[in-house]
Amino acid sequence: MGITSPHRHEQKIMQMKVTSEQAKQLLTDQLSVWESARDNYKALEAVQVKELTVEGCTVKIQFNPARIVSSAAKVDTQSLKERKCFLCAENRPEVQEGLPDGSYTWLINPFPIFPEHFTIPVNEHLPQLIEKRFGDMLRLAQAAEHYVLFYNGPKCGASAPDHAHFQAGNKGFLPLEKELKKYRRIPIRTEKSARLSQVEDYICPFFLIEAESEETAEKLFVKLYNALELKEGEPEPMMNILTWYEDGKWSSCIFPRAQHRPSCYFAEGDENILLSPASVDMGGVFITPLEKDFRKIDAEHLEKILSEVCLDREKMYEIIEKLK
User: DUF4922 domain location, by residue (predicted)?
Assistant: First the structure.
C-alpha cells in the first residue's frame, strides 16, 4: 500500500484496509524524516507517570507537556472559523504523509500519548459525528487489531470537532483494556450473540457492547445512541468511545458525558487543574500537560472531575430504562 502525499487532491480510491503492520511502518517512516514528531515520541520514553487508586481501580497520571496543544484547544465556533483545519490534506505539514484506508487516511499523531499513536481523519471536511460512522470504527479496529480505536465527541475532548476522525493507540497501554474482564457486567439487551451491558464498578459507569459480528454491534449501538440524551443545541449525544478487536470479538466501551470540561479547568489560582478528559482518560490514563497539575492531582481530584463530566448512576438508570 503506497503512502499518499497530503498536498495531492484526493480522488475516490478503492476500499483498502490498513493493517497493524502497515500502520507501524508508517510511524517508522515518518519519524525518520519528521524531526519535531520524532522528538515528541522520544520524549515519551522519559515521560513521568504516577499511579493512583480511584473507586478501587488503578489509573495512571501522565505528565505530557506536548499535549498542551490538545488540552488547551479552543473549540468554540468562532475559534474554529478562525483557524485552518489541521486534518484537511491541504493544511497538513509538508512532511506529513498518510496511508489511504477507504474514505479515511491514517496519519501519525505528532503529539503522542501512546508509543504508537495515530489520527485517522475522513478525507472530506465533515463534522465530528459518530452516528453513521460506528461501523467504520469497527472495521478499522478489526483490520488493525494491534490497536485500540477511540472516538472523542465534538465536545468530549476532540480538538478538531469540525473534521470527522478517529484515533488509534497500541494495545496494552490503557488500564481499562487490560482489566475489563474483571469488571461486573449488568446485561441490558442482546442482539443474537451480541450483548449490551452496563459496567458499574469502574471509575465511572459506562456501556459495553461485545459482539462477534459488525451487524449486531451496530444494531446495539444504534439502540443505545437513540436512548442517550441529546442536549439542546448539540449535534449528537455527548460521548467517548473505545473499541478494539480481539479473539474474533469487538469490545466497545461507550462513556456518556454530562459536560465537556470540569470546573477545575476554568478555576483560578490553586484550584486550577488543566485537565480536559477524553477517551484516553476514560480508559484510565489521565493526561496533564502542566507539571504543577501532575504533582498536585490526587484521587480526590479525579473523583470530583469524573463526577462532573460523566453521568451519575441515576442518569445511567434512566437510559437503561429506555433500552429495556
Answer: 26-170
Among candidate residues 122, 128, 113, 97, the one with its CA nearest the CA of residue 49 = 113
Task: Categorize the per-residue pLDDT at 5 as very low, low, confident or very high, splitting at 50, 70 and 90.
Answer: very low
CB atoms within 10 A of CB 315: 15
How do residues 84-101 score in pLDDT, each as one tens digit? 999 999 999 999 999 999
Q: What is the pTM of this model?
A: 0.91
pLDDT at 71 over 70: no
Closest CA to 307 of 253, 237, 239, 259: 259
Per-residue model confidence as pLDDT tens digits over 218-261: 999 999 999 999 998 889 999 999 999 999 999 999 999 999 99
